Amino acid sequence: IKSVFSKIYEEGNKRIGYLGVETFALNTYAQFKAELEKLEKDGIDSLIIDLRDNSGGHLVTVKNMISLFLDTTHVIYQTQDKTEIEKTYSTGSVTKTYPIVILANRQSASASEVMIGALKDEYGATLVGETTYGKGTVQELLSTNSGGQYKITTKKWLTPSGYWVNEKGIKPDVEVVLKEDYYLNPIVENDNQLQSAFELLRK
């Protein structure tokens, strides 16, 4: 299943890369890496990562995706159980330098919020759109001796700065509510959230 879509927008004298990520499936990392490398080879000046309506997916996938932007000195998320807080670091070899804007809305949840938290806190990315869903817990799948399985919540996850998103979400740096025009005619010109991202990156 294809879950990553890329494009380059020419805005003034800027080449703005766009990566839309619909979910964090097991094969999303490979797609994301390939599309990002293609955009960088084509000489982008900046990047938009669109996580609108992305409700999450596999944590290992988003960890690998974040590591494409940050080197090993950067924390990408933390987990907290009853006794301790554990930091998870990037496995990347380089920290990129071009500006990044992330698009999100109220349906952006879980792994999307992990990516947003990491790139906001550690990279300096700008979040445009609406406050995210607010899903800040980690589940584990456990098996019983009889062969049954059950999923239980075992930990909180926190952003690198220690913020717990649960039931609060991540507030945008630039709040933009999608206008009705886009729902009636979903074209780039009517996507005022995307247009706000263009405006930021043209500067």
- The proportion of strand residues reads 25-35%
What characterizes the major β-sheet? 6 strands, mixed
Question: What is the ordering of alpha helices and beta strands?
Answer: EEHEHEEEHEEEEHH
Residue share in helix: 25-40%
Look at the structure and give the mean pLDDT: 96
**Span between termini:** 36 Å
Low-confidence stretches: none
Which structural class fits the helix and strand makeup? alpha/beta
Total beta strands = 10
In spatial order, strands of the major sheet run 1-2-3-6-7-10
Shape assignment: globular
Radius of gyration: 17 Å
Number of helical elements: 5
Write the layout of secondary structure elements.
Layout: E1 4-11, E2 14-21, H1 28-41, E3 46-50, H2 59-66, E4 75-80, E5 85-89, E6 100-104, H3 111-123, E7 126-129, E8 137-143, E9 149-158, E10 174-175, H4 180-184, H5 192-202
Parallel strand pairs: 2-3, 3-6, 6-7, 7-10
Antiparallel strand pairs: 1-2, 4-5, 4-9, 8-9
Helix pairs in contact: 1-2, 2-3
